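Sample entry (91 residues):
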Amino acid sequence: MPRRIVDERGIEWEVWEVGARRPLADMPAAAGDEPGATLLFESATERRHLPGSPSEWESLTTAQLLRLCGSATREPPFLRVSRVAGADRSR
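Predicted structure, serialized as tokens:
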């Protein structure tokens, strides 16, 4: 489920995780990070990604998520496509 945060400039970011999780509970993880999982940060004009998302990212504070957003890699400009079911994509 995406989480919404607002940075110090008033920009709203939607944060969610994509990618694989460890299939077996007994497989070791490195430093609390989930291999293959990536956090995505998306605003109205920008998208960033952070590979190796922290396993407990959903419980981080807004300040902690904003720090992660600041260290995430910016992606090239994109055409925003609504993830809302039934959204009109003909515009």
